[in-house]
Write a structure and sequence with these properties.
Length: 598
């Protein structure tokens, strides 16, 4: 075993190498496993040291290309790319291997969202293998399975961290022509314990079990690094970078394995046949392959990798780039994570004793805004004021009147939570009404026709409540009415021109909800129908991340689940389950389990 435990990567290869099963793995307080030797079983054969990638690092760092060949790549299949961490390159590799009757191995989630290395020749398993997992995966027994398959003449593709793939090379102890090894650009493996504590906190908050998780969901764009969780109760959670708890923990560098602060697998030559990852900086290197849905960085390290890449290139859109352009946005290829200054023992003890939300407040709080960022933000507010009001007298007066001199409007100028009116905006705000701004309102946003005089109208009657829980954009020509004692809630989002929204009792629109042209939403009818049980008002609830396409109508009493797309010209008259596409009059489900990007 290693003299310094901090160098151990937890690859598990020594356990597979031991012929007497004398090595077991004990998990410490941090959630990482380390090898322990049963001295009664050990015969001092030395196979564990012979297999260890750290002990043998100098013999491992070699490959047959003088300089790697680099590409930006995206999968031509948009659905695959959308479901992938980067550009869908791994899926193209895996599909080629499956077509050849081969096996594909990599990390998958277990039922509790821990991760394990797994291998099969069933193409259906690609959905589980696709996408990075962002925690350390257990690999006990995996290396032995790979060797058996190779010795039996099976074609095998294996993907893992650089240390795991180096361990595989040492375990196999020879080159196999029927094996393709792929590693990824690794910024460090995170504690499985921290990962589970994060889920515990989310499940407590939503009072429901997580049944689906994607570490890098694309619905808000690739660059937002959004973590998406779906709960058994149908609710969804979207955590964007800088705000999500696990994202903050991971980027604080505090939950990494100790070996990651002194990683021996950085730099070149790479040990794998092919390396891959996110192509940060693709907007400069290959802008034609950048639409914020993800682009893969592909590094070909040897002739075998080059041959396999050429065999799948028809499934991809690619552009050869320089290694230098790739390194600019991927310093993790060269450098280990810096060890933060903190009490590591106290940190992991606190993880046992407090909720993950409390842990975040103490150990990785939201960063304080720098003066430079604050100045940039205020310049942005000034630009919005100029662009929206067009520096015309009426909208400038409306801006100051609404935000600073109207008693019922609770704005927050320090955070930019203000109403930004455009020319030809009309506001009728009753004295006894209230508007609460936990985000800004950009009202009457002009689209193509900047000089249009089409009115945009907002009325909040006596006792009416308008609550904005995220930035909202209202296109010009909209008509929004909150009737007496009614409540209208927006979670953030917005859309196109001519929205008609009539709230007579309660309408709740969730976060990141968007609408197309001429959408109509109402919870009230102004006429009385002589029918048993008829109600003139019936609340409407629209979930998070919903897309209401052009000319659709949402009728009183409707409840729409998270992630739904309402097709153009549809009329929604009954409840819609989460994450489905509906169309028609009345609207009916035509597809389910969908995702979409803003």
């Amino acid at each position: 075993m290693l003299e310094d435990e901090k160098l151990c990567t937890g690859c598990n290869a020594c356990g597979d190498a031991c012929p007497r099963q004398a090595i077991i793995f004990e998990t410490d307080i941090e959630g990482f496993w380390y090898p322990e030797i049963d001295e009664a079983r050990c015969n001092n054969c030395g196979l564990c040291k012979k297999t260890c990638p750290i002990v043998n690092i100098e013999n491992l760092k070699k490959n047959d290309l003088e300089k790697p060949i680099c590409y930006a790549a995206i999968n031509k299949n948009l659905e695959i790319r959308f479901d992938s961490t980067s550009g869908g390159f791994f899926s193209a590799l895996a599909e080629k291997m499956y077509r050849n009757g081969g096996y594909v191995g990599g990390a998958i989630y277990n039922e509790d969202f821990s991760a394990t290395h797994f291998i099969s020749n069933d193409k259906q398993d690609l959905i589980k293998l696709r996408s990075s997992k962002y925690l350390q995966s257990g690999a006990i027994g995996f290396y032995s399975k790979v060797k058996v398959l190779l010795e039996n003449g099976q074609n095998v593709l294996v993907c893992g961290t650089p240390c795991q793939m180096a361990a595989l090379r040492m375990f196999l102890d020879k080159n196999y022509e029927n094996l393709l090894i792929v590693d990824f650009i690794c910024a460090g493996v995170a504690s499985p314990k921290a990962h589970r504590k994060y889920f515990d906190a989310l499940e407590d908050k939503y009072n429901s079990k997580v049944i689906y998780f994607k570490a890098k969901n694309k619905e808000m764009g690739w660059r937002n690094l959004t973590k998406k969780s779906i709960f058994a109760n149908g609710k969804s959670y979207y955590g964007i970078k800088g705000q999500d708890l696990y994202s903050r923990a991971y980027h604080s560098h505090k939950i990494n394995r100790q070996s990651c602060y002194n990683c021996k697998f950085k730099g070149f030559p790479r040990i794998a046949d092919i390396s891959m990852g996110d192509y940060w900086g693709v907007e400069k290197a290959a802008p034609e392959l950048d639409d914020n849905i993800g682009t893969s960085a592909v590094i070909i390290n040897n002739q075998k990798g080059k041959m396999f890449f050429e065999a799948i290139q028809a499934k991809l859109k690619t552009k050869e780039t320089s290694l230098e352009s790739m390194l600019e946005g991927n310093q993790a290829l060269l450098k280990s994570r810096e060890l933060p200054i903190y009490d590591r023992k106290e940190f992991f003890e606190d993880m046992d004793n407090v909720n993950f939300f409390e842990l975040a407040e103490k150990h990785f709080p939201l960063p304080k805004e720098s003066k430079k960022t604050m100045l940039r933000r205020w310049l942005g507010y000034a630009k919005m004021f100029r662009d929206f009001t067009q520096l015309k007298m009426v909208p400038m007066w409306q801006f100051f009147k609404l935000n600073f001199f109207t008693k019922g409007i609770k704005s927050n100028w320090k955070k930019g939570y203000l109403i930004y009116p455009t020319p030809y905006s009309i506001f009728e705000i009753a004295k006894d009404s209230s508007i609460t701004l936990n985000g800004n309102i950009r009202f009457g946003l002009k689209g193509r026709f900047k000089k249009s005089k089409l009115e945009s109208r907002l009325a909040v009657d006596k006792g009416g409540r308008l609550i904005i829980n995220g930035d909202m954009r209202f296109g010009y020509g909209c008509n929004i009415e909150v009737h007496e004692n009614a409540e209208l809630i927006f979670g953030g989002g917005g859309g196109n021109t001519a929205l008609v929204l009539i709230c007579g009792e309660k309408i709740h629109m969730g976060a990141n909800t968007y609408y197309g042209r001429d959408v109509s939403i109402r919870d009230v009818n102004t006429h009385i129908i002589a029918q048993q049980g008829y109600k003139p008002t019936n609340p409407v609830f629209i979930g998070d991340n919903v897309w209401l396409c052009s000319n659709c109508a949402v009728m009183p009493g409707v409840k729409i689940g998270d992630g739904v797309i309402i097709g153009a010209h549809s009329v929604v008259m009954s409840p819609i389950p989460p994450r489905c596409l509906v169309s028609g009059h009345p609207a009916k489900v035509i597809d389910d389990n969908i995702s979409w990007k803003h």
